[in-house]
Amino acid sequence: MTRLDAILKRAIDGAVLTEDELEFMLRLEDPAACRELFAAAYLVKCREVGKGVYLRGLVETSNLCTRNCLYCGIRKGNAEVRRYELDLDEIVAGAKLAADFGYGAAVLQGGERSDARFVEFVTEAVRRIGELPNAPQLTLSFGEQTLETYRKWRTAGAVRYLLRIETSDPGLYAELHPEGTLEGRKAALFRLREAGFQVGTGVMIGLPHQSAAMLARDVEFFRTSDADMIGMGPWIPHHRTPLGIAHPGSRAEDLRRLELGLRMIAVTRLQLKDVNIAATTALQSISPADGRERGLLAGANVIMPNVGGLEHRADYTLYDGKAGMDENAEAARRKLDGSLAGIGEFVHYGVPGTPRHYLKRTGKTE
Ligand code: 5AD
Q: Is pLDDT above 80 for 70?
């Protein structure tokens, strides 16, 4: 038995793997070994959360942002961005479209702001969506906020929240984020739990100065912080950001980051087992034909198709070459059904897809 066989067997049998073992798998390059890793992760996914994909219709509500993260295309310092804010009707229409499509859930995501007007606006959007006859479950993703704000949004009816840790490495975190601290970010994740949210986190994969050991520690962070959902994808350079200018990258590097991203999904599935894991747009952006599908076959079980209008798509460019720029919600949906059938997967329509991990830790039944 090879070392990989032994590790995979332990994972399938339910063991918690060591950081060394996680790192070993993240470093695999041999295609046959990677296939074995992905197959084991797919098996654990099917056993722990079932076959099939849960959809969350994504509404990108605004690209106004108070932060200056070095990798992000909509950072405050990027003066080339045409800034926009959807109004309440547009946001509700996006959520309604998600519900009408049978996506059990919707996500409102936007740049980070915490002024009183913004907090009220999001509260109102959540309330209005909750009044829809077929209201989808709602996830929010608006960065770090006070406990009071998180409670307000939870009380208004949102049930999940995504806040990526981005990297759990203190040095790398500080390098990339002129504002905020890693400890502050961890505290925000803790506040989300306190406010009663199902909590999602995640990282970018293949960042400059990021090692496989750091990624192994990220997976351990996901596990020890008891996350319910994980969303992560390859870092992709954006030409108007300090990080993208310093490391413009190449197609070959993109492809390496895609492969590393897929291994990261597989390793996370093997270690965390019953969480929801997203196959993200960044995977699709590097490989439009099969990036998300490969994510699913490596252990992911959630996809977040964009349900917003096309008018502002190009203004929400977090990285270069972002997928779906000229594809409306209806076209995206048709394509997805087809491509999932092609890999023997399918969509669970009309159900919210609450993470098993959350149900187990709370004793709830949906
Ligand atoms: N490449 C990949 N992902 C990015 N994000 C922001 N900028 C980039 C980039 N250049 C991710 C961050 C953030 C999420 C909304 O998008 O992880 O949390």
A: yes
